[in-house]
Recover the amino acids of this structure.
C-alpha cells in the first residue's frame, strides 16, 4: 500500500466518509459522490482524500442533508472524528508506530495532525458560531455538558475533553476568539449547576464533578484568561441577584451549604437537629464544614488561576468582585430583600476566596508589605475606569458605591471635594495588586460574612422572643382576656412549630457562622486591617515596622491634625473589625485565641497585642472617629473581653452580701485582662478614655440617643468594674490619679480638657443615677400593680402592658445598680469632684429622694414576685451603696469645706431630707447585716452632723428673704457667693450655678447662645459687696436669735 492509499484509507476511516463506493470495506461509510466527481474531473484520476482535499470533504460531510441522514449533530460528528484521529496518532506514536520506517511514521503523523487541527478548528467554530452549521441534534455545548457531567471519570470521552481536547482548543483559538469558544461551555456548565439539584446541592455528589470540570478547564492559562473575557463574565445587566444566576462564575460561587442557598440543608440534613444532642449536631456541622472547605478550596484555585493568567484577567476578576459587592450592597442594610441580592452562600464563598488570595501578605508575621496598601486606593482605583488605570465598570456602579460610602471622619460634601481633587491631580501610578486585593477582600467580607452575621444575630433575637412568648402565655394564660384563652392551645402548637423551624435554620447556619476555621481566617485578615488603620493615625506613620506612637490630639473638632487620607477611608473598615470581634467573643471566643490566628511576633500578635492597641487608640483619641456608635462598639469589645458576671461582683463599697457566685469564664477573658494589666498604653489611657466616652456619648445624633447612652454607659461601668477588680490595683491607682490630676502629662493632651471631662462625668453620673433609679422604682411599682389585677375585657391589654413594663424594668434595674455602684466607688476613691459647688446640691437632693424611696414608708410598693431572679433587683444593696455615698462625701478626718458643703446640701433639701430617714435606713441595714459595725457607726455620725447643720440652714433662708434682687441668682433665687457675668447675655449668676448648668447644656440659659466656663467674667467688686452685706445680715440674724426673736 502506497502512502497516498494509506492516507486516503485512514482519513476515510476517521471521518467515516468515502470517495469510492466500490470498495467493499467502505460500504458503511457516507459516500460523498459530488466531491468524488469534482475531484475526478479535476485530476483525471481516482479521487483520494488528502490533506489538501480534506476540508472540501469535511464541508461536504457537514451538508445539511447528510447531517440529517446521519442522525447525529455536527458537533457530535466532529468530536467523534477527532477522537478517532487521536486514536490513530496514539497508535503511530506508540508501539505500533515504532515498527514503521521513521520517515513514513512522521509523514503519517503529519497527515493525522493536519486532520486533527482541521477538526479542532471546526469544533471551535461550531461553538463560536453554531448557526454556521445545520442545527440537527444536540448542540456542541450540550454534547460537552453531557460528557463532562454525566460520563464516568474513566470514560474516554470525559478524559479526552478534560485533557487533550481543552489543550488543543486553547492552543488553536488563543488569539482567535477563544472566549467565544469557551463561553457556551461555561454557560452550559453553569446553567446545569443552577437547574439540576443533583449538581448544586452539597448533599448530592454531583457538585464535586462540577468543581472538577471547572478546575480542569481553568488549569490552562489561555482558557483561564479567556474566561474573564467572555461577555457573561461581568455583563452590565448582571447586577444584584442576577450576578449569581447569569454571570459565568455565579452558579459555581453559589454552591453552598447555607440554608438560604439550599433548603434541603435545613429540611433534610438538619431535619431533626433541634432534638439531637450537642455532640450529634457538632458531628453534622463538621461534615458540612468539610464539604464547604472542598468547595471553597476549588473556587480559590479557579480565582487564583484567573488573577495569575494575565494582567487583564486580574483586572477583570477584581472588577467582577468589586461590582458584585457594589450591586449587592443592600446585603449589609438593616432591611434587606433577600430575593434581590446574592445568597449567603455565594457571598461567603466570594469572601473566602479573596481572604485566601490575601494570605500571602496578611499571614506575614511582620506585615512587611503593609506600606503597599495605599489609603487613597478609592480615588486611585475604585473611582477610575479601566482606561484611566482604575477598576470602575462601564456603568459606574462600583464608583457610585465607593463614592457614597460613609467616611471615617468626613461628610459627603468634604469627601466629594477631596475625591474630585485627587481625580484631577496628576497620576502617581496605580496601586499594587496587594492594595487591590486588600480592598476587594474587605468589601467582600462586608457584604458577605459580616452581613450574614448581622442577620444571624437578628435570628437569635427572634428565637429568643418566640421562646419567651410561648413560655409566658403557657405559664400565665390569665394574662389573656377570657375570650382569647380558648384558642391558646392551638396558638401554642402553631408557635412551637414555627420555633422548631427557626431553630433548625439557626442550627444550619451555626455550621458556617460559628466555624472556628472560617472565623480564624477572617481574624487574620482583620489583624492586617487593624494594623493598616493604626498606621494611618500613628504619629510617625511607621507602624508596625516601628512601635506605635499615640497621635497628638488637637482642639475639639480640629480636622487639620488628621491626615486627609485617614478621614476619607470607608467607615466599614473599622465597623466590621469591631462587629466581628464582638461576635466572636460572644459566640466562639476560642477563635480569637486560636494559635493559627496569632500569626504575629511579640508586639504584633492578633489578640494579645494588636486588638488591645486598636481599641485603646480609638477610645483615647475619639476625635479620629466622627461616628459615636463606632466608639460605643469599641466599649462592647472591651466589655465582652473583660466580662465579669454581675453575680460575682467584688465589693468596693463595704456592702456585706451573701456568698458570691463563682463562675468560670472563657480563658480568652483572663488572657485579655492579663494583657491589659501588662500594657503600659492601656494603663495610661484606658480609664480616662472610658470616662470621657461616658460624657461624649450623651449626644449621638440618633433619634434613640437618649436610651442608647444608658446601654453604652452600662458597658463602660461594667468594664471599669472589671478593671478596678484586678488584683494588682493598677487601674484603681490610674483612676485616682486622673481624678486628682496627679499626672505629668494629660491623657487627652490638655489639662483643662481633663478637668472638663471630670466635671462633665460627675454631672452625667449624677443625672443618670437620678433618672435610672426613678424609672426602675416606678416600673417595679407598675409591675406590682399589674400583677395584682386581671384583664376586664379584650380591650384591657394587661399582658402587653406587663410585658413592656417587665422589659423596661429589666433594663433600668441593671443600669441603675451599676450606676449607683460606680457612684459609691468613685465617691470613696476621689470625693472632691462630687462635693463641687456646681453639682453638690443636685447630688444631695438625688440621694435624699432615693433614700426615701428605699427606706421610707413607700418601699413596700417595690416588692415584686421573684424580683431578684426576674429583674436582678436588690433594693438592700442599692440602699447600702447609697448610704455609702453619704459616708464618703460627708465624713472626713479634718473639717474640710468640701465636706461641710455636702452636709449643708443634704439638710437644705426640704423636699426629702429628714433625720428620721437616716434612722429608718440604719434600721434596715442593721437588721439585714448589710454593713459592718464600723460603717454603721459612720452612718450614725453623718446623721448627727446633719442634725447640727440643720440649725444653720435657717440662716440661708433668712439671707435669701432679705437679699436685694441683684444679689440672688436669677435661676435658683439663691444668694450669690461668686458672681460672674455671662458675656453672651449680660446676666449675672453665681459661678457654681452656671457651671452646673453648662455641664448639661453648654449654652447661655437666657438667650441660648454658645457659652463655656472660660468665657465667664468674674465680678470681684460685686463679690466684695455681697460678702460685706452678708456679714452684716449674719450678725443681725445671730443677735436676733440670741434675743429669742423668730426670724
Amino acid at each position: 500500500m502506497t502512502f497516498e492509499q494509506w492516507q486516503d484509507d485512514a482519513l476515510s476511516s476517521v471521518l467515516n466518509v468515502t470517495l469510492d463506493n466500490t470498495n467493499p470495506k467502505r460500504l458503511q461509510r457516507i459516500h460523498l459522490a459530488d466531491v468524488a466527481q469534482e475531484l475526478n474531473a479535476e485530476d483525471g484520476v481516482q479521487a483520494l482524500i488528502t490533506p489538501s482535499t480534506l476540508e472540501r470533504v469535511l464541508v461536504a460531510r457537514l451538508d445539511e442533508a447528510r447531517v440529517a441522514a446521519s442522525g447525529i449533530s455536527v458537533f457530535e460528528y466532529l468530536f467523534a472524528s477527532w477522537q478517532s484521529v487521536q486514536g490513530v496518532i496514539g497508535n503511530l506514536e506508540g508501539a505500533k508506530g515504532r515498527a514503521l520506517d521513521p520517515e513514513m511514521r512522521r509523514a503519517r503523523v503529519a497527515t493525522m495532525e493536519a486532520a486533527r487541527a482541521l477538526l479542532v478548528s471546526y469544533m471551535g467554530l461550531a461553538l463560536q458560531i453554531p448557526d454556521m452549521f445545520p442545527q440537527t441534534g444536540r448542540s456542541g455545548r450540550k454534547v460537552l455538558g453531557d460528557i463532562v457531567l454525566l460520563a464516568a471519570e474513566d470514560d474516554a470521552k470525559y478524559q479526552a475533553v478534560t485533557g487533550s481536547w481543552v489543550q488543543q482548543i486553547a492552543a488553536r483559538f488563543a488569539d482567535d476568539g477563544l472566549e467565544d469558544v469557551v463561553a457556551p461551555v461555561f454557560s452550559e456548565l453553569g446553567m446545569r449547576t443552577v437547574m439540576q439539584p443533583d449538581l448544586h446541592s452539597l448533599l448530592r455528589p454531583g457538585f464535586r464533578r462540577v468543581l472538577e470540570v471547572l478546575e480542569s478547564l481553568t488549569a490552562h492559562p489561555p482558557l483561564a484568561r479567556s474566561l474573564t473575557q467572555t461577555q457573561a463574565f461581568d455583563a452590565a445587566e448582571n447586577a444584584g441577584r442576577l450576578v449569581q444566576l447569569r454571570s459565568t462564575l455565579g452558579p459555581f460561587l453559589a454552591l453552598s451549604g447555607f440554608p438560604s442557598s439550599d433548603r434541603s440543608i435545613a429540611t433534610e440534613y438538619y431535619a431533626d437537629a433541634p432534638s439531637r444532642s450537642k455532640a450529634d449536631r457538632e458531628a453534622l456541622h463538621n461534615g458540612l464544614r468539610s464539604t464547604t472547605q472542598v468547595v471553597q478550596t476549588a473556587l480559590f484555585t479557579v480565582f487564583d488561576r484567573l488573577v495569575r493568567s494575565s494582567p487583564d484577567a486580574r483586572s477583570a476578576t477584581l472588577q467582577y468582585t468589586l461590582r458584585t459587592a457594589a450591586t449587592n450592597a443592600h446585603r449589609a442594610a438593616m432591611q434587606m430583600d433577600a430575593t434581590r441580592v446574592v445568597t449567603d452562600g455565594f457571598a461567603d464563598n466570594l469572601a473566602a476566596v479573596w481572604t485566601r488570595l490575601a494570605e500571602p501578605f496578611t499571614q506575614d508575621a511582620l506585615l512587611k508589605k503593609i506600606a503597599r496598601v495605599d489609603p487613597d486606593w478609592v480615588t486611585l482605583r475604585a473611582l477610575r475606569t479601566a482606561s484611566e488605570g482604575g477598576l470602575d465598570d462601564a456603568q459606574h456602579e462600583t464608583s457610585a458605591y465607593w463614592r457614597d460610602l460613609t467616611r471615617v471622619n468626613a461628610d459627603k460634601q468634604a469627601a466629594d471635594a477631596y475625591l474630585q481633587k485627587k481625580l484631577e491631580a496628576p497620576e502617581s501610578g496605580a496601586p499594587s495588586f496587594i492594595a487591590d486585593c486588600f480592598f476587594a477582600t474587605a468589601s467582600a467580607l462586608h457584604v458577605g460574612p459580616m452581613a450574614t452575621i448581622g442577620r444571624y444575630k437578628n435570628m437569635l433575637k427572634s428565637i429568643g422572643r418566640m421562646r419567651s412568648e410561648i413560655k409566658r402565655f403557657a405559664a400565665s394564660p390569665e394574662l389573656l382576656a377570657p375570650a382569647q384563652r380558648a384558642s391558646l392551645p392551638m396558638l401554642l402548637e402553631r408557635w412551637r412549630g414555627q420555633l422548631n423551624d427557626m431553630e433548625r435554620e439557626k442550627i444550619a447556619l451555626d455550621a458556617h457562622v460559628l466555624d472556628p476555621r472560617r472565623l480564624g481566617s477572617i481574624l487574620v485578615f482583620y489583624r492586617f486591617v487593624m494594623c493598616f488603620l493604626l498606621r494611618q493615625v500613628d504619629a510617625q506613620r511607621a507602624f508596625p515596622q516601628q512601635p506605635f506612637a499615640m497621635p497628638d490630639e488637637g482642639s475639639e473638632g480640629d480636622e487639620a491634625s488628621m491626615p486627609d487620607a485617614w478621614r476619607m477611608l470607608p467607615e466599614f473598615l473599622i465597623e466590621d473589625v469591631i462587629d466581628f470581634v464582638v461576635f466572636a467573643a460572644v459566640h466562639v471566643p476560642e477563635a480569637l485565641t486560636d494559635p493559627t490566628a496569632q500569626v504575629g511576633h511579640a508586639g504584633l500578635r492578633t489578640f494579645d497585642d494588636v486588638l488591645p492597641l486598636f481599641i485603646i487608640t480609638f477610645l483615647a483619641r475619639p476625635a479620629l472617629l466622627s461616628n459615636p456608635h463606632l466608639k460605643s462598639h469599641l466599649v462592647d469589645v472591651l466589655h465582652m473581653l473583660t466580662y465579669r458576671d454581675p453575680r460575682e461582683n467584688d465589693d468596693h463599697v463595704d456592702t456585706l452580701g451573701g456568698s458570691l457566685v463563682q463562675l468560670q469564664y472563657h480563658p480568652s477573658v483572663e488572657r485579655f485582662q492579663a494583657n491589659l494589666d501588662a500594657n503600659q498604653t492601656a494603663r495610661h489611657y484606658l480609664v480616662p478614655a472610658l470616662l470621657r466616652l461616658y460624657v461624649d456619648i450623651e449626644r449621638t445624633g440618633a433619634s434613640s440617643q437618649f436610651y442608647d447612652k444608658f446601654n453604652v454607659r452600662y458597658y463602660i461601668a461594667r468594664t471599669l468594674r472589671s478593671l478596678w477588680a484586678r488584683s494588682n490595683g493598677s487601674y484603681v491607682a490610674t483612676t485616682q490619679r486622673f481624678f486628682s490630676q496627679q499626672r505629668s502629662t494629660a491623657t487627652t493632651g490638655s489639662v483643662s480638657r481633663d478637668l472638663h471631662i471630670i466635671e462633665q462625668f460627675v454631672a452625667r453620673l449624677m443625672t443618670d443615677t437620678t433618672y435610672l433609679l426613678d424609672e426602675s422604682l416606678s416600673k417595679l411599682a407598675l409591675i406590682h400593680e399589674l400583677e395584682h389585677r386581671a384583664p376586664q375585657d379584650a380591650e384591657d391589654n394587661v399582658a402587653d402592658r406587663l410585658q413592656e413594663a417587665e422589659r423596661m424594668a429589666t433594663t433600668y434595674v441593671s443600669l441603675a445598680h451599676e450606676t449607683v455602684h460606680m457612684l459609691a466607688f468613685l465617691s470613696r476613691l476621689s470625693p472632691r469632684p462630687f462635693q463641687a459647688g456646681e453639682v453638690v446640691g443636685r447630688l444631695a437632693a438625688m440621694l435624699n429622694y432615693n433614700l426615701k424611696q428605699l427606706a421610707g414608708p413607700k418601699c413596700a410598693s417595690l416588692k415584686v414576685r421573684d424580683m431578684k431572679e426576674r429583674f436582678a433587683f436588690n433594693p438592700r444593696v442599692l440602699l447600702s451603696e447609697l448610704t455609702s455615698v453619704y459616708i464618703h462625701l460627708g465624713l472626713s478626718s479634718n473639717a474640710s469645706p468640701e465636706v461641710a458643703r455636702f452636709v449643708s446640701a443634704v439638710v437644705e433639701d426640704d423636699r426629702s431630707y429628714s433625720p428620721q430617714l437616716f434612722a429608718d435606713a440604719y434600721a434596715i441595714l442593721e437588721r439585714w447585716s448589710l454593713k459592718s459595725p464600723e460603717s454603721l457607726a459612720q452612718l450614725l455620725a453623718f446623721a448627727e452632723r446633719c442634725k447640727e447643720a440643720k440649725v444653720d440652714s435657717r440662716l440661708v433662708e433668712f439671707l435669701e428673704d432679705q437679699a436685694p434682687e441683684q444679689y440672688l441668682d436669677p435661676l435658683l433665687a439663691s444668694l450669690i457667693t461668686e458672681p460672674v457675668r455671662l458675656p453672651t447675655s449680660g446676666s449675672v449668676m453665681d459661678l457654681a450655678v452656671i457651671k452646673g448648668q453648662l455641664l448639661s447644656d453648654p449654652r447661655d440659659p437666657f438667650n441660648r447662645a454658645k457659652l463655656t466656663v472660660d468665657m465667664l467674667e468674674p465680678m470681684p467688686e460685686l463679690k466684695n459687696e455681697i460678702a460685706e452685706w452678708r456679714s452684716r445680715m449674719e450678725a443681725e440674724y445671730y443677735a436676733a436669735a440670741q434675743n429669742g426673736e423668730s426670724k
